[in-house]
Amino acid sequence: SRYFIESNIGSNGALVVRSRFRPRYEPLMVAAKNSKASTSRRLYFEGITNPNEIMRVSRQFPDVISCSPVLRGNVSARAGFENATVDLYGIDPALHAQTTDILHQLIDGNFDDFRNNTSAIIIGSRLAELLQTSVGDTVQLLAPNGEYWRFNVAAIARAGIGSIDSTRIYSHAKVAQALLQQPSRFETLFQHNAVSWQEREESTLQLFLTLRMSVAITTSLIILLAGFGIFNVLTMSVLAKIKEIAILRSIGYRRIDISWIFLWQGALIAAAGSLLGCLLGALMTWGISHIPIRLRGLLYTNHFVVTWEWQHYVFATFLALLAVFIASYVPARRAAELPPVVTIRGSR
């Protein structure tokens, strides 16, 4: 899920501000009884009011690092005999590079070639495979008036998300504005709608949440089974050491001393098991990350995606110590409560 979240935010940003649609017809006033309401027709162009002012205000928030304007539209792309419907993003190269991870997503080509050439585009990796194009090739985009515009592929980007890599093309904002035939000034709107990345990807995040819950349940069951195993080992150890426990009690050992013997035994098992488990876990994680797997659906990857974080090992060690303590407590109490005289007499 982290790979998906980082790829999504790196491509689309953490927050998107877009226009909120209003009715095409609006009443001018409340109509009198038995009369028709007066309406006026509004010309509406999708977009936001004064993007520069919105970005200036947004930058005043302490958590906002950068903002980038985007002009978005759907067009048809053609390269050779291949055609595809694409999602055209008109961007400001300098601002977009500061706001997103597009510089790190390039797998071929040069971002400077795109920035210095208004007739250049950046194309998604899966879309490049579909159109059978590479850096330096020509791609034609169909304008609403039926005219084809020719662009040179300056770079190929891979976000790691199938829906982005298979549809997205980046161009300069002014060029996209002319291609999509958008007006230079948008109509004034009363409101704007801000959509966070959590709202945009709510359904996908719910899927990852379900998967994480299933993994947590499986891990909890494994830890529970390990706890039962330690409980059985220590219980058998108490039964096998009944005579020795009675001798220790008879020479002056207190109940708490006997309890601490078995608690320390459990602690040694937990320490050795945690150390060995962390080493084996790190080794298996490294091995799994190198297993080749070809995914071209929701995510784009050629191997298993794993996350290396020391917090995972600390949390696993804590759970192991807790499980061992609980599993050791009952046998330790049982060993401490054994009556020494009866035990020695019964063991003869």
Structural summary, described in words:
The chain contains 14 helices and 13 strands. It is α+β, with helices and mostly antiparallel strands and 348 residues long. The protein folds into two domains: 2-200, no CATH class; 202-346, no CATH class. A six-stranded mixed beta barrel has the order 4-5-10-7-9-8. Strand 12 and strand 13 form a beta hairpin.
Over the alpha carbons, how many angstroms does the gyration radius reach?
33 Å
Number of helices: 14
Strand order of the largest sheet: 4-5-10-7-9-8
Q: What is the overall pLDDT average?
A: 73
What's this model, at a glance?
With 348 residues, the chain is of the alpha+beta class. Helix content is 50%, strand content 21%.
List the main descriptive attributes of the protein structure presented here:
alpha+beta, 348 residues
Summarize the topology.
Layout: H1 2-12, E1 15-19, E2 25-27, E3 39-41, H2 51-58, E4 70-79, E5 82-91, H3 93-99, H4 102-105, E6 106-109, H5 111-115, E7 120-124, H6 125-131, E8 138-142, E9 148-157, H7 162-165, E10 168-172, H8 173-179, E11 192-196, H9 197-200, H10 202-240, H11 242-250, H12 255-289, E12 292-296, E13 300-303, H13 310-336, H14 340-346
Helix pairs in contact: 10-13, 11-14, 12-13
